[in-house]
Design brief:
Layout (H helix, E strand, L loop, with lengths): L1 E2 L9 E2 L14 E8 L2 H12 L14 H13 L5 H9 L10 E3 L5 E3 L9 E7 L5 E4 L2 E4 L6 E3 L1
Antiparallel strand pairs: 1-2, 3-6, 4-5, 6-9, 7-8
Amino acid sequence: YGFGAHDFPASGVFEVEPKKCPGFVYRCSVNLGQINMHPSEFRTFIESIANEYHGDTYHLISKNCNHFTDDVSNRLNGKRIPEDEITDSLSSASPCASQATSVMDDDQEKHLLSPFASKGENVSFVKEAPLKRMSHDGGEKHLDNACCVGLSI
């Protein structure tokens, strides 16, 4: 799942295939822990928290994809994403691309979270490494790096 901006007072939370965010290249993952939760329970949880993340409330500095992922992780397992990851992305003014949530099936392929997924799946949180940073070149800003933050089930 991801959180992004739009102009409407409706949820900015969306589904995206893990490690396949359009326009970005996956680099790595950092495990933030595990919980046991059925995928349909997790979907219900995401739907409830999505009401707090409307697209028109997205803010590059104070309410972005890092904040969404940090909030979800904290609510589910009491763990925060590493502070330096939030600080690095904010100090460089890099926009967040998305987060991803997936279900790991028996042959270890990842799929979008589905209420039809098998029972007893483990939920783990991952944070993808920053990909791009803002820089200045001759007065123009160029996006060199952006971050993708993810949740993986």
